[in-house]
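Cast an eye over my tokenised protein here and flag anything odd:

===
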Amino acid sequence: MATEIRLKHNESGLTKIGCYGFSWTYLCFGPFVPMFRGELGVGALHILFALFSAGISNIIFAFIYNKQYLRRQLENGWVLAGEELQNQIVKASISE
């Protein structure tokens, strides 16, 4: 089950909620999740994977999508803004 973590953008000061762990949302809605989050290229790639794997890739991506999404956000200037212990847990879970 996904756990929420607060993210803050260094330059703009905006905050948003990110998740780590299993993505029930991705399991139910598949490649539409990245598209709703503004990752159109990732969503298009996931649609291709789903077509070529007869949807089996959706099960696999449900386990790894949140981790990949958080990594991309951290690479794009967002930082973890939760409690220190929670930040350490998230860093450990996405570094694997």
Observations:
- The chain has five helices and three strands.
